[in-house]
Structure to design on (139 residues):
């Protein structure tokens, strides 16, 4: 079961902002490594970012989706919000797909610009998702 912070707008917002802030910082480190063309450092930054997305952002998504978690509770207590929950869950799926693609590409290619594009897409989807989710908590 997810903790009480997930059920209140302000603490949930703080979790989202902290997660996004860390992703931005780590993505900036990747960009700096790409500018100096240090492949070893680039690959380490990519791995660090993948780990971050999995342990910080996607684990948060998993907690929201677990049985008895935030999404379960909202859908159970507010059946009219079920479509919102479906859309938010799809956002999580998109984040998972992008992370999986990044991991696969990092193993098979050194097209770092393309990988960076996907990290940027992760941040955009996550930011939109977070605002939509926080609006749901206001209601």
């Amino acid at each position: 079961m997810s903790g009480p912070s997930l059920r209140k707008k302000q603490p949930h917002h703080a979790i989202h902002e902290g997660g996004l802030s860390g992703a931005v910082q780590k993505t900036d480190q990747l960009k700096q490594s790409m500018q100096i063309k240090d492949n070893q450092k680039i690959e380490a930054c990519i791995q660090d970012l993948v780990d971050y997305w999995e342990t910080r952002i996607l684990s948060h998504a998993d907690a929201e989706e677990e049985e008895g978690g935030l999404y379960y509770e909202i859908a159970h207590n507010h059946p009219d919000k079920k479509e919102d929950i479906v859309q938010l869950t799809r956002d999580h799926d998109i984040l998972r797909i992008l992370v999986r693609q990044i991991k696969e590409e990092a193993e098979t290619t050194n097209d770092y610009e393309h990988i960076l594009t996907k990290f940027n897409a992760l941040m955009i989807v996550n930011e939109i998702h977070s605002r939509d989710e926080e609006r749901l908590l206001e209601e």
In short: Residues 16 and 130 are 6 Å apart (CA to CA). The chain has five helices and no strands.
